[in-house]
Each structure stands twice: as C-alpha cells, then as structure tokens.
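Before a colleague's protein record goes any further, I have to sign it off. Would you go through it and say whether the fold makes sense for this chain? Take the sequence as given and treat only the tokens as open to question. The record follows directly below this note.
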Amino acid sequence: HQQPTDILYCEKSVKPAYGEAVSKVVIVNTDILPFSSLDEVVGIRLVGEHNLINCAFVYEIAKTFDINEQNFISALQSYIPLRHRLEFIGKKNDVDYYDDSISTTAESTINAIKSIPNLHTILLGGMERGINYDKLVDFLVESCVPNIICMYESGKRIYETLEKQSKDSVIIYCKDLYKATETAQKTTPPETACLLSPASASYGDFTNFAERGDVFRRIVFGE
C-alpha cells in the first residue's frame, strides 16, 4: 500500500527485488550506528545482536527528524524494554536471571541464547503444538549450552531428542516450571546466567506468557 512518496526501511536480507517497491527503499545495517556493540552504551537494558539491528532502524529513522547522536544514545539509556522479552530480572547468588517468556518459537529462543554470553542454564518447553524443533536442537548441540532443563510436554520431546544427540550438555527433564526453576537454582554456578526462553506456548498451565514470566520471577526471588 505504499506510494512513491513513502519510505521502506528494510534489512539487506529481505530487500525487495528491483522495481518491486514503488517507494524509496532504505537498506539498514548496524554500520551506521555511533557504536559497534550495545555493551558500549552505559546503562542500556537491551541485549543481543537482534536488538543492535533494531537500534540501527531507530537511528536511521531518527536521523530524518534531525535527532542528533547524543540525544539518540540518551534515549537508549533511558529506554525500559517491555517485560518478558529477554528481560534481565535480577541477580541472585551471583547468577544473572533473564525472563524471555514471550519466546514461543525455536528462532526466538536461538536469538535469546546468542544474546547472553555467560549463559549456563536454559529452561525450555511448554504446551505441545507439534512445532518442529530440529533447528533449535541442532543449535543447542552445536553451541554446547552446559545445562539444558526441559519441562512440560514440548520439553519432553526436546529432551528425548537432545538426549540422543548431545554429548557435551547436561540434559534434565522436569515436569513443570516450579521444579525446573528450583533445579536451575541448584545447578547454575556463580558468575553465569540462567534463561527462561521456552520456545513454546504457555497455555494449559498459565493464562499467557506474562503469567509464566511472573511465576518464574516469584520462584527465583520469592516475590
């Protein structure tokens, strides 16, 4: 529905073919940013390569409104991300805890794993919807996440597949989030991170992903 006076911002891997878009096309990449890593921005709450790309889109658009570099960085530093989306929820016993309860696909969980350099433990699984988890299993085997805790019905299937393929990770199955979180607290060493990124829907056991994330926080911190 765009017109010649409109602008299409897109990443190079999904740019339209020549002549396909009638609007002006702007290809966005992270080279335009005034920093090369989110770690360079003091106080920022965003993590991960995918969020670095998101920042590049925002910066490209902000430039059209004459927003300068310093104001852009200040906005990033004050930005509070939406909850349950790769959200750092706190530290306990020197372990970093992240809530990515919104993750209901293999792709989103893979991105979350890539975003946390000190990741040691991941919690996977939820409602069984027949999703193909081959890509996630292959990634977990290759990346050698040390401690993989699976739960619920989809987690049971992931567990059974990983058990046959993974040689370098500890694979544990727990019946629910409560037992999985308690197990994670016992098995995650200091100076590492624990991530809830289920790659599965929450329905059947929780009202939605938000409730699942809130329960995870309460179990960890007793809130």
